[in-house]
Amino acid sequence: MTESWQKITEAYRHGRLRDVIREVDAALVRNPVSTTERERLYAYGAEANVIIERFTRATEMARAAVNSADPTAQGLACCAISTVRLVEGKLGEALHLAQRSIEQLGRPTAIPVAPLAGPYTVKAYCLRQMGRYDEAEQVLRAAEVANAKVDGPHQSALHSERAALLFYLGAWDAAQDEAVKGAQGVDPIGDRIGMTGISLLIAIHRGQRTNESGLPFATATLRREYAYLPWAQAISREAAGQYLEAVDYMAPTWGQARGFASPPLIYPTAPDFARMLIIGDAPRSVLAYLVETLDVLAATAGSIPAIEGALAFCRGMLADDDDLVQLKRAMNLYRQARQPLYEAYADEEISCRLAARNSRTEAKAALTAAVGLYKTLGAAWDISRTLARARAVGVHQGVTGPRLRPRRGWGALTAAERRVARLVAQGHTNREVGELLGVSPRTVQTHVSHILTKLGAGRRADIAAEAGRHPEED
Length: 474
Fold this sequence. Notes:
Helix content is 69%, strand content 0%. By secondary structure, the protein is mainly alpha-helical.
């Protein structure tokens, strides 16, 4: 069995999941194994099957090991089942099983090479959905420590989840930094494309030029990590005025929602999809289907403000123009969920509907609230869209308050980019900057490239010169 275990664990570490399944199945048939070894084989098989979305087989194998006296077998089995429960929208069960998995895999007698990112990622996701953001961040930090102890190769999953957490909270600079950092590391199970999608989403919302060449078209077969990609591509088409194309990018995701692209994992895209459907003059039956799907999810997941907010928003979009009850409910739920982008979406729709019924003062107040939230995010495209819609119904809003970050010059740099720029100005190499900031040289190089572009510069000396013109700390 020693050779089989080496093949199984090595294949898992490098994301060769079908090799894991093949070796597990062969070992179960070929070798006389002890009860503990059999349970471990089933557990590894369950984990590999769940990642490639063979949920029925994963559940069958996990059940054979979930009550094992061996902490490795029980921990991996709990992780597999927790992921299935997450896909089903049963967040309470998923959270409980993820915690049980973490406890078992953390025991001294557990195999040290056991993959640890999975249960931490599931737990952080559940906590994020429940609005327990500080706890989710603590889980991700603990995961980094645990994975470092076993030289865990799946850090990309943790970076992806943290980038998502920061995105929904509106900390977009930090989300982009996390996505860049995660994209530089080892990516055995394909999380990098999800982080690319998050970066694209932020750039599009901010009205920045994006490069989508070489990226795959949205299809119903894309994994969860890819859900951010068709979402970003759809919004990109909407921003360009290509409304039917925008719907075409999102429709496959919702039309055949299943597996890691099931409603519990893609529901944040619903408000954007609802807006695209309305603008694109799609049949109301499509929006009604969206509402029905979210209604089932809300009932399954329990009282989750972000999910209920998405449901209320889509119900509001489906309702008559003079019915603001659901949109106001969505606004309050998103505020409770601390998700400023979606709170602004609700304010934007409320403003337009109030204006349509000649409630100008109230419409202007809602417009001011929406634009104010968008400004905190630097969401230039959303502000442009909102003001254009407001003008179309006779509501005008002076551009006041905090200014958006410019696209060029020192002011266009993120906080992380400014830190890098100052260290470059001091004469540090990329490797030295990376050591000082705790990131890889490749991450530093990415920052330097962005800095040069934003400054319109061609050399590192130009960065130093610009930094010298801004001596105060940012």
